[in-house]
Specification:
The complex is a heterodimer. Chain A is of the alpha/beta class. Chain A is built from nine helices and 15 strands. Chain A starts with 7 loop residues before the first strand and ends in a 6-residue tail after the last helix. The chains are: A alpha/beta, B alpha+beta.
Chain lengths: ~280, ~325
């Protein structure tokens, strides 16, 4: 009997604490054959589990070209993530996936790319940024606008710095007013207003906007003013999931099962769906 | 010419099947009501064309709790093992046609894209014998969703009452023919079906309304009294939403699939606290939308058989029927 719910066993190969309550973890398949055959598209997600505590859904935040490992990032907010917080290098955890549709990177070729993210939305942007950097000649200007409540809440800070040194890459980081430290050199403000202030001139860009619903809502009119059509604006939904394979009945937005026909949707598609996300 | 069988003969057959080790699931009288349960003895068999169990037969295909796999943790090494609890062949005797009709509907969701063998292996191993209804109650509405008192969807064989204790046997599938091969008697009178419930709503109208009135005060007006207990979902033959949880060492260290209900407030709550369906009316709307618009759009089948369980089992008199008849 094929068991679609049975996870792969994965060895934890590194753990990085990103903030006081966010960690990123790198894992690899214990089964070498599975490791060789595994592939995914950036933007897809997995269901990660600690045996004895349960499963949680996270984006695969590593690039699809990193063949030796996959990475995910989580905030400690509940039973499973509390247990995941205790995981150390050498421990074995569960992984099911890849699930969902992923980013249509082939459609993005030849375009400028704008990534707009808030808070814990950085991981699903990070995988796409690395993918674009590794396939640099396929894309135009790359702009990343990333904000968090405070300086201490920013994740993947070292990588943001590294990206900003690359050719034709612009990285803007911001924190909410009051969230800055005395030596903060980035912007102060919310992602939509910082993005507007930057007054960028972009050539037929594709935008990926991920974050709290209010951030997405306030970013869309700015993109529209810049002439970006809703069909070129993508987001990744974060609906709660259990099975990841279109059975358990909880992630749907209208007739869209986010685990199957998502999590990546264009604003065009999203506008045609009921406000159930 | 038709094939017939008596109730006495059916009880003998049930006794033989049980002795041979095949579980027989039938309506059983318990504390003043009926429930579908595995029979311990053929004497407990309580089927009739009028028996309406309070549960559905879905739990014999999609159990309330089912181990997906077990794990053994030893230091940092983990060993996974497949569940061994699958019992094999089973016979359901005396199911309502509306309960059996749920299975071809559920086949879609358990088999689109990825295939759920936990469900499929029970489906393959089960023979379903239904009894055509001769009586409906106020909660019945099979005729409003395209079914009826003798709809054979999902049945392997159907019994139709000729007279008290005598049935016409209509074999529908090969499994049904095998089950009754050589045990029926020829007869001339056909079984009868009476008292189809009146058509109570137009399912196409419900679909059109649900698809175009997502943000309408209708849902608040009609969903507010729901207490979110999930009785509708748990007794529904087609509701199939589930959770996956870890049962600790005392329960054998297993990852278990359990029934869930879209009426629970935590059903869709994100880790951030954000909840797309943050009120009971929003959750009632989801229930109607999923059954009458989303599922038909995706799988070309209404996710409802009109059995009326949600109406009979609702503690506040809601069920889908009171909402649908208001549309």
């Amino acid at each position: 009997m094929a068991n679609i719910y049975k996870p792969d066993l994965m060895e934890v190969i590194s753990v990085r604490q990103q903030t006081s309550d966010v960690k990123s973890v790198a894992i690899r398949f214990l089964d070498p054959e599975r490791a060789r055959n595994f592939s995914f598209t950036v933007g897809q997600f997995g269901i990660f589990s600690v045996f004895g505590s349960g499963e949680s859904t996270f984006n695969i935040c590593s690039s699809s070209s990193w063949k030796d490992r996959i990475e995910f990032c989580f905030r400690k907010v509940g039973r499973v993530t509390d247990a995941m917080w205790q995981v150390e290098v050498g421990d074995v955890i569960g992984f099911r996936g890849p699930y969902g549709n992923g980013y249509p990177v082939d459609l993005w070729k030849g375009h400028d790319l704008v990534f707009l993210g808030g808070g814990i939305a950085m991981p699903p942007i990070r995988c796409a940024v690395w993918y674009a950097l590794e396939n640099r000649d396929q894309f135009g200007e790359i702009t990343v606008v990333y904000g968090a409540r405070t300086v201490a809440d920013l994740v993947f800070v070292d990588e943001l710095k590294e990206w900003s040194t690359r050719e034709r890459v612009r990285v803007i980081t911001c924190v909410d007013p009051g969230g800055e430290t005395p030596d903060w050199k980035g912007e102060i403000g919310l992602v939509p207003s910082v993005f507007e202030r930057a007054n960028l001139s972009l050539h037929d860009p594709v935008a990926l906007v991920i974050g709290p619903p209010i951030m997405i809502k306030n970013t869309l009119p700015i993109l529209e003013k810049m002439g970006v059509v809703p069909g070129s604006v993508y987001t990744s939904l974060e609906n709660r999931m259990k099975c990841g394979v279109g059975k358990c009945g909880r992630c749907n937005v209208g007739s869209h099962y986010v685990c199957k026909e998502g999590p990546v949707l264009t604003m065009d598609t999203l506008r045609g769906l009921p406000l159930d996300f | 010419m038709s094939e017939t069988i008596t109730e006495t003969k059916l009880k003998h057959l049930a006794a033989e099947w049980i002795v041979a080790g095949t579980p027989v699931i039938s309506p059983v009288a318990i504390k003043g009501r009926f429930l579908y349960m595995p029979l311990l003895s053929a004497e407990a068999l309580a089927f009739s064309p009028e028996t309406r169990p309070a549960n559905s037969i879905k739990e014999f295909f999609f159990p309330k709790a089912e181990t997906l796999y077990s794990y053994r943790v030893q230091g940092s090494s983990i060993e996974l093992s497949e569940p061994s609890e699958f019992a094999g062949q089973q016979i359901i005797l005396g199911a309502r046609p509306c309960d059996a009709a749920a299975l071809p509907i559920l086949d879609h969701v358990f088999n689109w894209d990825s295939v759920d063998d936990f469900y499929n292996r029970r489906r393959t191993a089960t023979t379903i014998v239904t009894i055509a209804c001769t009586k409906s109650d106020d909660a019945c509405f099979c005729t409003s969703v395209g079914l009826g008192p003798s709809a054979t969807n999902g049945s392997d064989a159907m019994l139709l009452e000729i007279s008290t204790g005598r049935y016409e046997v209509r074999c529908i599938t090969e499994k049904g023919r095998q089950l009754f091969a050589g045990v029926t008697e020829p007869g001339t009178e056909p079984g009868h079906v009476t008292d189809a419930p009146p058509r109570k709503f137009d399912s196409e109208k419900v679909r059109a309304f649900a698809e175009t009135h997502f943000e309408d005060t209708f849902w608040a007006d009609h969903g507010r009294t729901c207490v979110g207990c999930g009785a509708c979902a748990f007794t529904c033959p087609t509701c199939h939403c589930f959770d996956i949880v870890d049962a600790g060492p005392s329960a054998g260290s297993a990852r278990v699939r359990t029934w869930d209900s879209c009426q629970s407030s935590q059903f869709t709550q994100h880790a951030s606290g954000h909840n797309p369906r943050n009120s009971q009316p929003a959750r009632q709307r989801q229930r109607v939308l999923h059954k009458f618009a989303t599922y038909p759009e995706k799988f070309d089948a209404i996710l409802c058989t009109g059995c009326g369980n949600c109406v009979r089992n609702c503690p506040v008199g809601l069920g889908v029927l009171s909402i649908l008849t208001e549309i």
